[in-house]
Amino acid sequence: MSNTANFPLLSLIMFTPLVGAVLLLFVSKHSEDTIRWIANGFAVLGFLVSLPLWFWLDVATTDWQFVEKMDWIPSIGAQYFVGVDGFSSLLILLATLMGVIAILSSWTAITERVKEYYIFLLVLQTGMIGAFVALDFLLFFVFWEVMLVPMYFLIGIWGSSNRLYSAIKFFLFTLVGSVVMLLGILAVYFYYHEVTGDYTFDITKFHALNMPFDLQWWVFLAFFLGFAVKVPMFPFHTWLPDAHTDAPTAGSVILAAVLLKMGTYGFIRFSLPILPEATQAFVPWVVWLSIIGIIYGALVAMAQRDWKRLVAYSSVSHMGMVMLGMFALTPVGVTGSIVQQINHGVSTGALFLLVGVVYERRHTREISEYGGLSKVMPAYAAVFLVMTMSSIGLPTLNGFIGEILILQGIFVVNKVWAAFAATGIVLGAAYMLWLYQRTMFGTVDNPKNEKLPDLNLREWATFTPLLILAVWIGLYPKPFLDRLDTSVDRVMARVNSAYMPLNALGQGAVEPNTPPKVLTLEVDSGDTARTPVRGGAR
Amino acid sequence: MMEITPAHYTILSAALFSVGLIGVLVRRNIIIIFMAIELMLNAVNINLVAYANEVENLVGQVFVVFVIAVAAAEAAVGLGIILALFRNKETVNIDEMNVMRS
Amino acid sequence: MPAGFSALDFYYILPELLLTGGAMVVLLLAVLTPRNDNLLLGVSLGTLVASVLSVSLFSGLDVTAARGLLAVDSFAAFFKFIVLLSAGLTMLMSAPYLRVEGLKAGEYYFLILCATLGMMFMASGVDLITLFIGLETMAVSFYILAGFLKPNPRSNEAAVKYFLLGAFSLGVLLYGMSLVYGATGTTSLQGIAVALSGQSPSMVIVLAVVLIGAGMGFKIAAVPFHMWAPDVYEGAPTPVTAFLSVGSKAASFAMLLRIFVEALPAVAADWSALFWVLAVLTMTLGNIAALTQSNLKRMLAYSSIAHAGYLLIGVVVGTERGVASMLVYLGVYLFMQLGAFAIVVAMRRSDVVGDELKDLGGLFRRSPAAAFMMLLFMLSLGGIPPTAGFMGKVWLFGAAVDAGFVWLAVIAVANSAVSLYYYLRVVVFMWMHEDAQPGSPLVFGPAMTVALGIAILGTVVFGIYPQLLFEQAQAAAGTLEGFSATVALR
Amino acid sequence: MAEALAFYTLSVLILGLAVAVITTPNTVHSVVFLVLNFLCVAVLYVFLQAEFLAVIQVLVYAGGIVVLYLFVVMLVNLGRSPEEHQDPRRLGLIGLGLSGAVLLELAGIIAYSYTREQSPPVTAAQASPVQGNIEELGWLLYTDYLIPFEVASVLLLVAMVGAIVLARRES
Amino acid sequence: MDFIWLIPLLPGVGAAINGLLGIRYFSKVLAARIACATMGAALLLSLVAFLELLGLEHREHVVTLAHWIPPIPLETASGIGAFEVPWAFRLDPLSGMMILIVTGIGFLIHLYSTAYMDHEPRGGYVRFFCYLNLFCFFMLTLVLGSTFLVMFVGWEGVGLCSYLLIGFWYHKQSASDAGKKAFIVNRIGDFGFVLGVFLVFYTFGTVDFREVAEAASHMPVEVAGFGVVSAICLLLFVGAVGKSAQIPLYVWLPDAMEGPTPVSALIHAATMVTAGVYMVGRNAVLFEHAPMVMTVVATVGALTALMAATIGLVQTDIKKVLAYSTVSQLGYMFLATGVGAFAAGAFHLMTHAFFKALLFLGSGSVIHAMDEEQDMKKMGGLKYYMGTTFITMFIGAIAIAGVPPFSGFFSKDEILYRTFLSNKWLWGLAVVTAGMTAFYMFRLIFMTFFGDYRGPGWKHEEHGGHAEEHGHTWHGPHESPRLMTVPLMVLAVGAFAAGFVGVPAALGGGNAIEHFLEPSFVATSASHAGEAEHAVAHLSHGAELALMAFSVLVGLAGISLAYHLYVRRRGQADRLAANWSVAHRVLLNKYYVDEAYGATAIDGTMASARGLWTVDRRVVDGAVNGAGWLTRALSWVSHVLDKYVVDGLVNLVGWICQEGSYLFRRVQTGLIQNYAVATLFGVFAFITMYLVARYVGV
Predict the structure, then answer these.
(1) Which residues of E are less than 8 Å from A482 in CB distance?
(2) What residue numbers bound the domain in which A263 lies?
(3) Which residue has the higher pLDDT, C21 or E632?
(4) Range B6-93 has CATH code 1.10.3720.10
(5) Is the entire prediction scored with pTM above 0.95?
(6) pLDDT digits (tens, 9 = 90+) for E169-188
(7) Would an 8 Å CB–CB cutoff place D5 in contact with chain B?
(8) Which of C156, C245, D77, E556 is deepest in the core (most CB within 10 A)?
(9) Three-state DSSP class for E581?
(10) CB contact (8 A) between residue C182 and residue B51
């Protein structure tokens, strides 16, 4: 495996925020500015140490990179096994970046219990990164669940009116999904043992496991519940609007930008490659749920009077799009799905930040309370416009790349699905523009809005990276797409052999009847050189 | 019918056990309830002794010795508890002991 | 010394002997220096430590002692560690409590030590008589301990309830045991297994299974034999409740496993089905009933009922993995449950009872450390990583999945989700509500600090690195299985 | 025949006295019936060749426990009847019904087992170095069952301490 | 020529500078200069590029900048291909013509706007130029894009700019509504367009125009059936319909007049709305292989042309008249492409760009002069006050009316001729439309510039009162400043002369533009498509001239009718409408051939026009609004569903748990014996369970 370099980069990235959190424990809760500086410092530091993922990542190799591996619970075969590929490296970068932005955006918004707030944010950060780097299923699950707690507190303590209900709803929904997923994980784990005699949670070994269809079917359902709740897919989405609406701005941003990606990440990393046959069997179901989600989310968004809730429902719609692309099971669709995950993080994250900006000034999210903000906050209106356009997929901005790849990817599979999904383009424009009109256009009717200050420097600092990303991905997504190359191949090799001949990645598939000894040797041969798959293609 | 088998003893024991059960379930005086429990223990003892007789070893009887010892211990403790309770509540009516519920 | 008894037999019961001796010393000291609480605590703890050390003398051993009445194996050792540790933690958290309540420490510690003694016999007994007498030693101690707050009507009532229902269930249990004896002619677990092997189980044995199951179900507070638990837990002195919910439960599970796994493998299908139903009922009712409780101790009582339901999964599965995972769960349950109760104890001050949920309001402001620890305990009870409760649940549910009890696992999983609702309610009160009383911050004495420290350490360390626990549990489960395997060979 | 006659007589007595115990309104009467019941059981033990048990049944139960009961009954003698207050939620009748049902089930299963199924295996009586019930029992108690016996003594100590702790009037 | 990517980029840079810095820091003058300079540079570059293009043998040049979307394998109809989109720009005759139009007219309008928008506060002024530049950036990307998706960048981008510019005065509810409507209706079109693009990729494995044309040229013409090419074309046409405001998606364009007039001129007349026509022309090869879709295109075009013209007859808002006229003229262009006369369509596109931009700017000048008054009823006699505007607009009107030798004549006549060859019915519709066009355009001219001044305020003021109706003092109708009139004059020259590049053979010309554009409409390697075009039947020059004369006559008839109604007998039209005068009915009957309507023809037409206007407002627009309403209703239903059913189910589970909890609490009576009963019940139940299992056999 390449890029090991004997340096625990991933651990460093993962634990930097945690170190910050621990450090904060020892700061007096009254010196709030010190706390803010430390939190921001560690967030920035976390981002900086994650940058090597962008620069040092080898885009050509199919190996896992920056791998760290050691025993964790040997008696059950669990390991501390982390590593990334292009896909997860992008999500980690997204997480670290959004972490900086979220923490920075809270500077003045959070005035109560500042210390805990930042501690929770930083712990959340560690949890998210951990989930993205874990290559051990149990480790993944630990981080997956760890994220719940700080998020619960972020919503429950610093949220708005109905925060307790929303927080518990968020928690329980996700939990129910994930514990069922846990059963699925265990089923795979025991099946692997049955076949090979080894107990392991090593995902890379599961990726080479051929399970009988019946088992796959059930395990898929279990995984599906866990991931679909997180995504969230219709009809498991109802926690999302509540959670988003009541979360503090930074919470919404993180939730939308990174936490929701856990679900889609899970699908791509686990469901698809571990359960290829079941995945194929479930394609129509998932696709129709996604399509319903796209249209339904958009329609419900249109009916909202609460700004944040509207954006939240738009998330439902967008994530439906992400799921759709993924279950196209075509390289273009999956690539689009991943790109759209990042896009959604950027644009919806920014939209929540934008809501947060006015919420901090006015303490209301009722759309009807606003109107004519273009007049008083022109810069704000401009940023909002760009992000609106990004959200509805205007070409030259990021959203378009994702949508076009997804729709093209699904189109070649089924034209009707694509046609239904494409209605999301129209509906998305409708609710976003209507929102824009209601808030930014018109006259300033509400005297409270007359004196709203425009974006300040700190707020600009939060938006600038997002604007840059939006335009960058929109105009020149190649660096991003290149990174996804091998990740997508890995998935394709399992779920859609039309694109990747089986075993093209050099991974010996585990046949149920293969003797364990031979098999372990073969599965373990991760270090052998593998030929790049479509070397010439790009 | 005329030959007395262990089954007879067992059924006697079951009947005594049930009488004890009923006593526990229907009386309201704690002391009487406690006595009903003693009846249940006696039922067990009859069982054990009868079986010991049948299987021709004395383990059952040893068991009975322990049961009696336990019964004695329980009686002492139980009556102590009842006394302590009575000091506080001036009652031994079991229906008046529902401060804690739901 | 009677013939046929060797010094070795006494050597093997060294931990029990030490414990008994220690208890006697404590009783004597209680008479000699009645007000020297610290000394009493020290002696009691010293006794426990000595006992722990002597238990570890026999680690790795797998023999029977005392003419086949006691087993000295890893299984017993595991449970002895658990009960000794829980007794120790209970004592540590009792120290401040006794002071606040003005209770006599001597008798209290004596009784705790005797209860522990009973539990140790339950853990190592391989004869119905030994098990029964151990159970009673524990139970009688607890009857007294539950009513230890004599002026408190709640405590009286708890004692009466526990006592009457305990005696009642004892009758049921003994009746079942008598039937087993009648059917097999022996009280030795090994003998029973041998006698029953190779024949189709008669209905009498099944009847005995039900009656013994009910009796044991009472002790572990399995639904529908659980109804004493909430009331008793609420009324008993809080440290006693803690000990009851951990030590007594663990020991009862040990006894249950001994009886069913070692003595009754012939009717495994029958009791497995019985415990399947019990497990489902117990966890579901426990969790749902806990949802709307406003008293913290009562809520923890229901939570402990629910946990008994989870633990029963291990019994239902009945495989080595099942038992091992159950032991793991008991191991982590010890820390988290005692920790939670320790916080409740710490809430008790001269003017505040502190066991109502609303008493926790704003605890975060008064004592962030306590709130944080309670958070960890609640998360652990709910099974959220990185706490030990998660690791326990993973293995328990995993064992069910492994053995094909998928629906049981699904129900358990759904239940653990429900349970989080009320665990989080506690968190909500601590972190998101205003101060219940603008009282002074909680002060932990040294004993309480040590207790909480151990609990939190266990909760976190076993959550992050549970390897040690897993190894021990596997070894312990191995000896239990091995025993029945040798039975099968004979 | 005689055995049967004695058995049935004793059975009727035992059950009748038991019923009397749980039905008499007067607690003291109840205690007296309990003593009688225990005595009858002791006689039954003699029939079953458990002479030692018969003795301790009389000594411990009738002589010890029941006297304790009487003390307590005297101590808690109240002005008002303990049965006066009745909680409307109590499930006495259901309990009665269930007890009956359980009895039927127990009896049915036992009777069925003994008539249809093979009688349980009879393990050979252990070779014991002494003769006679009392000696044999004593031998067992002090050899094989020494440890439980010791534990029982601890248990009795616990009970003693407990009784003192609970019953002692706080100064 | 590798610099062609700079042509769109320059205005883009201008927009970026003005947007990022200008709005906050620049003065009006600086911002305007930056905008105009970038546009001017783009114009120069375009000219250079165009001249170089003329020198190229293949008349084509492609510049690929970078990968936009690198190749990713994807299934196509013919095996696994690679989905790949480069940032590629292509200059060929069609796009060459378009960039000249866009940069040329765009530059003029920039100039014009510097004066026209002078009333705006600084921020708005700079913002306006930023948007305008941005629009040019996207429009040039649209026309230069070498693949469907790069074109789509421009396609959507101009939609965005249109949205922003229509809603430029966002504080007006109607303006922001109109902007939103434009965007969303366009999106409906885009929905078809993207699906078309997907199908293109699936069918041909590429989204490059040239490669698609190549591949398509090898496919059979789908004469008999509705094949995949037809499906592609139909979907693409849906996009065109949205962008170019054809039936049924034209409703946004009249509303779009809420934007500032230069915007109407540039976006909603000269450039953006013609993107649909351009796109169809760009895919000429595809469309030629889908004759059924061609028929649809032609029919939709003709019907739109007619319908919009009839509506135009009765409008009194000067910009609305022009808007419907635009819709109508766009219909003409589609008619042309629909009958296979792609060059004629493009030709008309060009001439229309000149005269319609001229007319709009002229109307802007008028509105400017009348202090934002747009109702023609309140104008009149303005030729005395603003001569330049009058003359230039008059030229524009003549041009659109199709009077030789003005540009409109040549382009329109080419269309009519080709339509006549292809379909006589459509030709009939087109001719009627031409007459109406002449009528309503001159009605506009006459009502605005002739007769007496009917406007408010100023006359009163001249008599001494100093009305302060508006924020600033208005000194009566006046000629616009030089910066506005110069572009008018330049455009007037264009409107007059632009037609000479396409003088038909019948008039002794060489129809240069058709030959120039031809390479854009054929696949390079396959000439048979081109041959098909050449194989179109020809009429004799004589017949062609006769047709020409007829159409000119129709136009003149329209003009004279307008003259008759609005100049010679002023007020006649109003009186006609009011009194239904028999005499004029008879007079007017000659205009229409339908004898069945007899004496009430004009009235009927008027009425039906009014009716159509109503229909347009109430039904078609209503349908759009109704769809909007339906969507909202649906959205509300979904919302309720979400709140009460989906979420309700979740809450129901919670409720059940809670009620269960209360139930269990009730069981927990605190009575010891009840607890014992429960225990006993457990024992009983389990024993029974086993008994049943064993002896009943479950």
Answers:
(1) 70
(2) 9-533
(3) C21
(4) no
(5) no
(6) 888 888 888 888 888 888 88
(7) no
(8) C245
(9) coil
(10) yes
